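Hey,
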Amino acid sequence: MKDDFGSLYSKRIIAGSRTYFFDVKETGDGVKYLTITESRKMDDGEFRRERIFIFEEYIDLFIQGLMNAVDFTKKQ
């Protein structure tokens, strides 16, 4: 069930001065996609947001690439 913001799922993670949002949404024609948003407060008090979108047809490729990067980082 969608919430008021159109999300099917939403999770917020606070990591130091940054906040990450993981949201699963759905297009008008039923295609699901993941958005990952990074939000951080700038020196002027404004918030800067960066967002990426991963559509469900590419989620496995995205996860594979992410896991490879995580494995590499842990080994270093």
